Task: structure prediction
Amino acid sequence: MNWIDVRKYYPNKWVVLEGLKTRKQGNQKYYDNISVMESFDDGNLALKACNSFHAKN
Result:
């Protein structure tokens, strides 16, 4: 999935993403393929889910 797909399928949502295929050019990191792990109506809940995911990994 790419960012255009995410915006299409999850309009007006906060999403927690996982980069499946990335590349780096200079100081920039590009996400060529991403996966939506969870979606939320509330940004605070999305941030908590993201922090929880990073704490486990």
Q: What stands out?
A: The first strand starts at residue 14 and ends at 25.
